């Protein structure tokens, strides 16, 4: 019965993704559920990566300490951007959701749990928030909230209109 109740909202979400030609994040739908996968690079992370050689050059040729400060800011910016690089899988058949974290900086330097697992039945809803950057660099981060209040970042998108619509449609799936 629940499968039939979810089919219509999932079809609406799938239709919206196709109509809007949303390719980032990547949505995949199957008979068991859905998966949402974020790309590693977006406009902000590519811009920061392009600036890294300039910062390193500045460290070597001009002021080492200013260059070091800028390098720290750039690395923090990359880490922040890469935090939304995740695979989010929702399987309705086995009542299991998994967020697989794919942040390359965290993988290289820290040994942090790369997976978060929780029951589909524990999902209370979805939301989004702005990164509060300049409008041309602004991204909208997508979160899943559990019944116990825990909140997990699972992706981001460049358009507030699309973020809002995706969150509304995902919330309809889990009513």
Give a nutshell description of this structure.
The protein has 175 residues and is of the alpha+beta class. It has 5 helices and 8 strands.
Please provide a written account of the structure:
The longest helix is centred in the first third of the chain and has 19 residues, at 43-61. A hairpin with a 4-residue loop joins strand 7 (140-146) and strand 8. The protein is built from 5 helices and 8 strands, in the order αββααββαββββα. The strands form 2 sheets. Strands 1-2-3-4-5 form a 5-stranded antiparallel beta sheet, covered by helices on one side. A 3-stranded antiparallel beta sheet has the order 6-7-8, covered by helices on one side. The protein is of the alpha+beta class. The protein has helices at 2-19, 43-61, 64-82, 104-109, 160-173; strands at residues 26-30, 33-37, 86-91, 96-101, 115-119, 123-130, 140-146, 151-157.
Sum up the structure in keywords:
3-stranded antiparallel sheet; alpha+beta; 43% helix
Strand order of the largest sheet: 1-2-3-4-5
Let me know the largest β-sheet. 5 strands, antiparallel
SS-based structural class? alpha+beta
Instruction: Provide the low-confidence segments as ranges.
Output: none
Percent range of helical residues: 40-55%
What is the rounded Rg? Answer: 18 Å
Blueprint (SSEs and pairs):
Elements: H1 2-19, E1 26-30, E2 33-37, H2 43-61, H3 64-82, E3 86-91, E4 96-101, H4 104-109, E5 115-119, E6 123-130, E7 140-146, E8 151-157, H5 160-173
Antiparallel strand pairs: 1-2, 2-3, 3-4, 4-5, 6-7, 7-8
Helix pairs in contact: 1-5, 2-3
